[in-house]
Amino acid sequence: MIAPLTGFPPTQCRRLIIKVGSALLVAPDGAVHRAWVESLVAEIAERRAQGQQIVIVSSGAIALGARRLALPKGGRATLEDAQAAAAIGQIALSQVWADLLGRHGIAAAQMLVTLGDLEDRRRYLNAAATLDRLIGLGAVPVVNENDSVATEEIRFGDNDRLAARIGQAARADAVVLLSDIDGLYTANPHSDPTATLIPLVETIDARILAMADARSASGMGSGGMVSKLQAARIATGAGTHLAIISGRIDAPLAHWQASGRGTIFRAARRRGARKDWLAGRLTVKGHLTVDAGAAAALRGGRSLLPAGITASQGRYARGDVIDITGPDGAVIARGLAQYDSQDAERIIGRRSEEVAALLGGAVRAAMVHRDHMVLL
């Protein structure tokens, strides 16, 4: 089952997202690993010649900028330092990609996005349209989070999850996370010699999540295995395969295709663009808790009625995205609220005829309609 996916070859994968981590691009002294990037770009050029469309999600701006500004702790001592380093480093980063891709006759297109660009539906569609047009014109989009304006409250925080969201927006077939580790292990391989590599993950369940380690092996990046599993959930939930492979070797894609060493998370069935976007969101405005009967009804494809709700948290308006949790506290669905939080608090636990009496006039049939809901 793994062989047809290994390497995500151009003949089987029309559109591919490649995420490159900071530790692979930038040495501890702040210099670019130029020879390694050249080997990757040569692979990208070869794949494009075979018909594969590629988007690069590139880290490294803060690390590059910190060197030029002589900032401590790699530019991550304070938010202000990180923003300043990103503003300087993004220019250097885009120059590297533009120069090396240009040598192969490929135009590089810079796209800087924020969390809000992909969480807001209209802005998400604009980003998706831009990506599609650039790819159609033969360019290679190079995407990064706009760290010069991002804050702790409104940011992805790591490019693993950004790559997965870009995979959604681009309707990609697969996402590859080039990392300083060659896949998901049963335990942290740096501290447990008995840890073994898991080649294929069909379902990201509690057992898989328990294997994650939040630390970044290099200390340079912002992610770890936790962020990679979050990215895998986003990507696979949108019908996109995701792979974690080692980037600590020249021509990493060819090495992976030859060796098969890495972890592949197999895509689930696509649910439609709007529901995929809903499922992949990283922020919500509120939470509804439901009883066991309502949870079972949701899993059976029903809408959420006020009668099955036991609690409402957060402040949200009609049309905002909210999560729905079961009696055990686990999130089971996400959808668009049909009532604002003030009305929701008045009608939870009430039957339809009671809702009409409480609110007066015509009422909506559901708190969250199944057409605007996705199971998680």
Task: Please give a structural write-up.
A hairpin with a 5-residue loop joins strand 11 and strand 12. The chain is 38% helix and 18% strand. The protein is elongated. The protein folds into 2 domains: 262 residues, 3-Layer(aba) Sandwich (Carbamate kinase), CATH 3.40.1160.10; 92 residues, PUA domain (Archaeosine Trna-guanine Transglycosylase, Chain: A, domain 4). The protein has 376 residues and is an alpha/beta fold.
Summarize the topology.
Layout: E1 15-20, H1 22-25, H2 34-49, E2 53-58, H3 61-69, H4 79-102, E3 108-113, H5 115-119, H6 121-136, E4 140-145, H7 159-169, E5 174-179, E6 200-201, H8 206-209, H9 225-237, E7 241-246, H10 252-259, E8 263-265, H11 273-280, E9 286-290, H12 292-299, E10 309-314, E11 321-325, E12 331-336, H13 341-347, H14 352-359, E13 373-375
Parallel strand pairs: 1-2, 1-5, 2-4, 3-4, 5-7, 6-8, 9-11
Antiparallel strand pairs: 7-8, 9-10, 11-12, 12-13
Helix pairs in contact: 2-4, 3-4, 7-9, 7-11
